[in-house]
Amino acid sequence: MRQNKMLLPTLREVPKDAEIVSHRLLLRAGLARMFAAGMYTYLPLGLRVLRKIEHIVREEMDKSGAQEILGSILQPAELWHTTGRWDDYGPEMMKMKDRHDRDFVLGPTHEELVTTLAKQEVNSYKRLPFNIYQVATKFRDERRPRFGMLRAREFTMKDAYSFHASYESLGETYDLMHKTYTSIFTRLGLNFRPVQADAGTIGGSGRNHEFMVLADIGEDTIAVCTHCDYAANLEKAEARYAAAGVAPTEDAPAYEKLHTPEIKTIDQLVESLNVEANTVIKTLVYLADGEAVAVVLRGDHEVNELKLQKFLGARTLELASHAEIERVTGVPSGFVGPVGLKIPVVIDRDVLGVSAGVAGANERDYHFQNVVAGRDFQTERVGDLRNAVVGDLCPHCEEGTLEFYRGIEVGHIFELGTKYSDSLGATFLNQDGKAQSFIMGCYGIGISRLITAVIEQNNDEKGIIWPMAVAPYQVHVIPVKVKDEEQMRLAEQLYNRLREQGVDVLLDDRDESAGVKFKDSDLIGLPVRVTVGKKAGEGIVEFTVRKTGEAKEVSLEQAYEEIMGLVAGH
Q: Where does it mainly reside (predicted)?
């Protein structure tokens, strides 16, 4: 491509609304333009990156035996009502009505549609298993679109769905998709980790893993073992419980009341009583399906609301307001404690290890000290209800502890089971001639957010540093002076020869200064730059690798050979 004719509007100034590096570079390098919050138009350079990512995804999915389809973006509401997700999905779902006042949804995902497709087209176990996928636009009405394409309202996604007659078959495909995703993200040159995660609104009772690209701006926190391969999203992360630390109940001093006027928070208790936060027993009040429940945990720990909701088996969960707390307990917020509390109580297991704790006395301006779980309050309902923290013992090995990283979720795979086939009545005839629900798996990749992930991991102060596999062009040929016939002749010669060999090459034939050209070249970040300058008459060019910044003078032939070696396999 000749740059003089290309729509490539680079920017010198950093856009004011761009919060993160990848978003700033996305706009400055002329990859895309935002025309409304969370909605983007891909410009030629950005679309080439998107298509290259799609190509890699398709290659690996096809290699796995999956078959590509293309489903309707517009889906009838009836399917979503049948599965119960019309209400469960919440305000993120883009809903609309047609001229006949019928409800439709712009698909955020396609489980309902493909399950219905299988119901209509497959009636025998002999046609199982199969795995179908699509690369298509999805819509989600994000409350706060931000971080460029990381959280957009319209985005490109690869979603796949597998159908099986047995859970053994599902497990085999799940493992294959795990391997396939690993290959995809490796080919993209990403530093990533597969982590255990929660199934969220997709659901399913089997295994599920998120694939996280490690990045400081990631919206997710992941816990990783220092010794083994255990990794989990914070919402799912566990810690090994040290049973040896359970508090003794014999010979412990009796609890006694302390006057603690206006001392309500953990920090205030720590400072005023000269105690450690891990010896404070705090009590929070939640509304689970509208009913009050007290959650008891150590002062240095935080409630994991997802774990709590599952422990309680609640459909909805919210933290009670100060007014609601006083209404259901008769005690102002900050002084509620487990001793003698009249509402249902659930206890995080680490509270059992507090030998003489400080807890609210269920009376304004008073706390108890020397409180012991099991002796002073009941411990009938105990579970892992807290967030893991740095330094926790790994739940999967004896040697490791947990470290935390930030991550961008770029993929998620699920063992769905029969969640959707049961609700939609999607069955086939098994080997015994009886109707059986399809056993399903689903597998998603955020194609467009991968652009953000790649840029976040590959940039410097000058601009983007594209990996060869997804670079919009692999080589940037820059004649310093386009009016110099010898420079243009050499540049054209290399440009044409590379194109004949299928190399993606961009020729900067603009009549601009060398400084402008080099700044734009660093900004858009193509892997290799060949500068044709003063030594063109000698057949000498400057060969620069964008990632390392290494520059050297070589012959035109040597530049060609080195380029062909670098692009081989990509």
A: cytoplasm
Instruction: Name the strand (E) or helix (H) holding 555.
Output: strand 551-555
What pairs with residue 506 in β-bridges?
476
Helix (H) or strand (E) holding 448: helix 447-457
Give the β-pairing of 540-545 and 505-507: unpaired
Cα 475 off chain centre by: 31
Tell me the C-alpha distance between 85 and 258, whole Å: 50
Of 403, 394, 511, 445, the residue nearest 158 (C-alpha): 445
* Chain segment 376-405, per-residue pLDDT in tens: 998 889 999 999 999 999 999 989 999 999
Arithmetic mean of pLDDT, 529-540: 94
Distances (CA, A) of 234 to 194, 205, 278, 289, 357: 13, 19, 20, 24, 27
pLDDT at residue 245 greater than cutoff 70: no
Query: Quick one: pLDDT at residue 201?
Result: 66
Cα–Cα distance measured from residue 211 to residue 444, given in angstroms and rounded to the nearest whole number: 10
Q: What is the pLDDT of residue 244?
A: 47
CA dihedral 53, 56, 59, 64 (to 10 degrees): -100
Structure tokens at 549: 């910044």
Cis upstream peptide for 108 (omega within 30°): no
Q: Please list, in sequence order, all residues whose beta carbon lies within 8 angstroms of the beta carbon of residue 35, skipping any fewer than 6 positions away.
A: 41
Percent of the chain with pLDDT over 70: 97
Tokens 């059986």 sit at which residue?
436
Give the list of residues 6+ apart from residue 291 with CB closer than 8 angstroms, or none: 344
79-83: Cβ within 8 A, 24+ apart: 79/112, 79/113, 79/116, 79/424, 80/105, 80/112, 82/112, 82/423, 82/424, 83/111, 83/112, 83/419, 83/420, 83/423, 83/424
Q: Of the given ranges (48-62, 201-215, 497-511, 514-528), which has the lowest mean pLDDT?
A: 201-215
Tell me how far apart the alpha carbons of residues 413 and 154 are, in angstroms, rounded to a whole number: 21
- Tell me what pLDDT residue 355 has: 85
Going by C-alpha positions, the residue among 483, 570, 494, 568 that lies closest to residue 531 is 494
Nearest to 139 by CA among 165, 104, 172: 104
Q: How far is CA 74 from the centre of its chain?
A: 25
Q: Provide the whole-model pTM.
A: 0.86
Residues 562 and 74: their CA atoms lie apart, in Å, by 49
- Residue 227: per-residue pLDDT: 92
Is 90 exceeded by the pLDDT of residue 14? Answer: no
For 218-244, how does the pLDDT look when each residue is reduced to its tens digit (9 = 90+)? 888 999 999 998 999 998 899 988 754
| Helices of type H across 344-411 | none
Q: Residue 375: helix, strand or coil by DSSP?
A: coil
